[in-house]
Amino acid sequence: MENIIRQRVKIEQLLVEKAMKDALFRAQLILHPNETVEKEFDIKLPERTQVKVLEEDANTVYLIIPRQLSSETEG
Question: How many domains in the chain?
Fold first, then answer.
């Protein structure tokens, strides 16, 4: 599971870095997150996977905690 978390953090980091440099990419990521992630990484996300993008403002900070996998769902 630790490897999955590291991969997710790396992907998130790459997306955030590009969104900070590229206004068009940022807008697409906010408006069409699934499609933008798929295009960026040349992948097809599972049909039930939903990517949501939240843009912070000066007064709001978001902390995302990944779901905790039970031993029955790992594997």
Answer: 1
Residue by residue, what is the 3-state secondary structure of 17-47? Answer: HHHHHCHHHHHHHHHCHHHHHHHHHCCCCCC
Residue type, 28: Q
Structural contact between residues 51 and 37, judged by C-beta atoms closer than 8 angstroms: yes
Predicted confidence (pLDDT) per residue in 4-63, tens digit: 788 888 999 999 999 999 999 999 999 999 999 999 999 999 999 999 999 999 999 999
pTM above 0.70, yes or no: yes
Instruction: State which residues form the domain around 69.
Output: 1-75
